[in-house]
Amino acid sequence: MYRIGELAKNYGLKTDTLRFYDKHGLLKPSSRSEAGYRMYTEGDAECLGFILRAKAIGFSLTDIGELLSIELDKSSWACSDVKEVVDLKLNDIEAKIKELTHFQVSLKKLSDACCGGQFSAENCSILDALESSSETIECQPETDHCHPSTPIDTHQCKE
Q1: pTM for the whole thing?
Q2: Burial profile 99-116: b = 16 or more Cβ within 10 angstroms, e = fewer
């Protein structure tokens, strides 16, 4: 049996993390000591390892709760149920990567459109582009104030 502090220390966590997992129903202590300390078994420690590994690869607490419910009652679930959870997370991550790539390209274009000099920001190409009401930002041809003509698509990536 582990007291909360011992289990947390074994995994390099703070006791607040274990309390948080308890509050969210992911890791309940097996018992409490006479002094009221949360007590965890070796099985609880293995469950904590499961939670941390799942968290490390991007699963949310909701996802982890679902995976734990499957883990605790494997005979009632099919492998396809587990794969579905993973595939949904994978789709989410791929969409986020696509969105972040769009942000990266747009920000790079904005950055490249500006000389970054000590000129007044009154003619800043970045601010001009962001003030534009068009859906595609068109930077002006280069002038003394660094306005290149690179279009910047402000729409979110859509399939």
Answers
A1: 0.71
A2: eeebeeebeebbeebbee
The model's pLDDT over 27-48, given as tens digits with 9 standing for 90+, comes to 998 898 888 888 999 999 999 9
Task: Report the DSSP pairing between strands 38-40 and 2-3.
Answer: antiparallel
Distance between CA 56 and CA 70 in Å, rounded? 19
Q: What is the mean pLDDT of residues 96-100?
A: 97
Enumerate the β-bridge partners of residue 151: 138
| The one-letter amino acid at 155 | H
135: its two tokens: 């859906």
Residue with tokens 């734990």: 68
Q: What is the pLDDT of residues 46-72, one digit of tens each?
A: 999 999 999 999 999 999 999 999 998
Name the token pair of 147: 């306005």
Burial of 48 (0-12, 13-18, 19+ CB in 10 A): buried
Chain-centroid distance of CA 151 in Å reads 30
